[in-house]
Amino acid sequence: MLSRVNRTYCPSSASQPPGGGSWLSPVGAGSRLGNVPASRGGSVAASTGRDGQAAPTIYDVARAAGVAASTVSRAFARPGRVNADTAGRIRRIALEMGYRTNPVVRVPLGERSSMIALAISDITNPYYFEIIRGAQAAAMEAGFTMLLADAQESDQLEREALDRAVQTVEGIVLASSRMSDTSIRMTAKLRPLVVLNRVVAGVPSVVTDHRHGMRQAVDHLYGLGHRHITYLAGPEAAWSDGIRWQALREATSELGLRLHRLGPYPPTVRGGVAAADDFSRRPTSAVIAYNDLVALGLLRGFSAVGVRVPQDVSVVGFDNIFGTDLVTPGLTTLAAPLHLLGRAAVQGLLALIAGGQPPVGAPVIIPTRLVVRASTGQPCPARVVLPADRADRLPQTPSVGVTAG
Length: 405
Hints:
Layout: E1 22-24, H1 58-65, H2 69-77, H3 84-97, E2 115-120, H4 127-141, E3 145-150, H5 155-165, E4 171-175, H6 181-188, E5 193-196, E6 205-208, H7 210-224, E7 228-232, H8 239-255, E8 258-262, H9 269-279, E9 286-289, H10 292-304, E10 314-319, E11 332-335, H11 338-353, E12 364-366, E13 369-371, H12 388-391
Parallel strand pairs: 2-3, 2-4, 4-5, 5-6, 6-12, 7-8, 7-9, 9-10, 10-11
Antiparallel strand pairs: 1-3, 11-13
């Protein structure tokens, strides 16, 4: 017996799915959901996990939580009608047990839907544009349709979206997931899964070469004459932020450079503008930002108060997203082959779906390269220090796409 569905959701629709998270349905090969055996009277056969054991039911969760099955159903379908503490306890217990709510269409293990899901942390971030294109191209070539889930930088929305997707798709790619390692491993037990831009023990992953990339950036700045670098950190939950910081520490230590850290900041233009204000209190001759959006926001903040780039401060970003060559000055950045990242992740996932064994050991590493533009140069001997009165004039509501300078 499975939980009652109070609202319907069609995976091929671009509407908001029940329970949070955003879904898009990019153009792809026709899905064969019609080949999934339909149930009579609205009932669906009990599902099993990848280990072949019966999945927990709504009654198992109810017994563990000490509540009625109807209360468990309301906690997921109509949480506003259940005490907040009770609903939270039910969800926690359900997560621990591996319980998943029942969507309209369930694809039993072994059945084909010819659908996969790609979950990303923020659909408004240009970093994901080429990843999505690469992933979709690989899916279409194999005759699969790809669903896209936008977690909006929320691990909760990401989990809720995957709770529904795992019942419909044959496999999942997680790009820059904000979920815990434990949650990711639990999802991997239910469907084939590949993690992109993060390493999780026991789960196949594809990452860019953060260590070599950061070493390239440090070597470039060192060659220009910089001896004191600031790193603008990204989200604490981002695996890539931790590995980039570690790589920076190693590279600067080997060269005898001083390294300062500011943040964490949201991985957005707004986060970069906020960083410009903080930077004014402890300036250095060069900055390496967590990503290009933060770097672009920093350029905007500097421009608003008359700090010159690169004459006063050199700035380096990461990812080489669209627009980094359109701002003034053009942004020096570490280019990750984003289209290849998306393609490689989906190709690895399709191999797992076809019955291949998940790779054991190190992740698949995609190389990076340094793209030098006008935002980096030799340090000025009499470098400008941002006065406090000018820092007060930093813009408070930046928008994406504004040209710095």
